Amino acid sequence: MLVPTSSATDTRRSTGRIVTLGIGAIVLILLVAAVFLLVNLPDANAFNARVERIFIDNDALTGSGELRLLEILAQSGTAFSGVLSSYRMVIFVLLVFATALLIASLVFLVTIIALNRRMGEIERAGIQVSSLLISRDQLTVYLNNMEFKLTEAAIETLAVLAEARMDDDVLSGSEIEAVISGRKAADCDEAAGATRIKRLRDTLGNQMVSELLVKNIARRGYMLAIDKDVIRMV
User: Fold this and answer.
1) Cα–Cα distance between 178 and 186 in angstroms, integer?
2) For residue 73, how many other CB atoms are within 10 A of its CB?
3) I need a surface site. Which of 38, 48, 59, 98 has the fewest CB within 10 A?
4) CATH number of the domain at 132-233, please?
């Protein structure tokens, strides 16, 4: 039976295409918005042109008060030109910041999507364990060089599961309890073994590790979802 796989290279290529298309779309949208805003802003010299036109059309204004008014209008036009130029710069800077923020948001979104997809693949495939060393004397488990300190009961439960995995067996809760307690499986309660599994998972602490390491097979029992060749017990 063929199992569909997804390589890291394919994931990176797909993510790279999405990021490239997203960045291109963001830049294009903001560029269109910038052109629209700048085109619709009034000309910085529009006010000065109007004042100049007033001077030309009213050359008969020779009084000192009238000339002073025209000078004020000319100075106002110059001030207006400066303000409008600064507005253009402010709009440009804001558009640059908006572009940077949108690109960063897109990159973070795509990264989160890729991580969620990768986590889903891990959950479907199970945890990849290259070595599992159980030290009963030290009450320690070394999982892919990660050290876990367990209780004595948790070590016993894990050791039983490891021995069953090396024999390709799946143990029910009552069978786990029977092996640990030394009684017959018929005399043991299924809930007792399930409680031991729960305590083992709680002791491991990391939810992803514990849930993927100890698999619950419906209507059959529990087993370690790892290759039996990587298991060692001392």
Assistant:
1) 8
2) 17
3) 59
4) 1.10.10.10
Identify whether the C-beta of residue 159 lies closer than 8 Å to the C-beta of residue 116.
Answer: no
**CA neighbor of 79 nearest in space, from 54, 38, 45:** 45
Show contacts of 67-76: CB within 8 Å, 24+ apart. Answer: 74/48, 76/47, 76/51
**How many angstroms separate the CA atoms of 38 and 48, rounded?**
19
Q: Is 232 helix (H, G, I), strand (E, B) or coil?
A: strand
Distance CA 135, CA 133 (A): 6
For residue range 37-87, list pLDDT tens digits in order.
Answer: 777 766 656 666 776 676 677 666 566 666 676 677 667 766 766 677 777
User: What tokens were used for 138?
Assistant: 């030290």
Contacts of residue 19, Cβ cutoff 8 Å, sequence gap at least 6: 106, 107, 110
**Where do the structural domains in the chain lie, given as residue ranges?**
9-125, 132-233
Structure tokens at 202: 């709680």
Assigned token pair, 175:
């069978």
97-117: buried (b, 16+ CB within 10 Å) or exposed (e) per residue? eebeebbeebeeebeeebeee
Structure tokens at 107: 């990159």
Instruction: Supply 207's token pair.
Output: 């939810």
Residue burial 80-90, b: 16+ Cβ < 10 Å; e: rest: bbeebeeeeee
For residue 141, give the 3-state DSSP assignment: strand
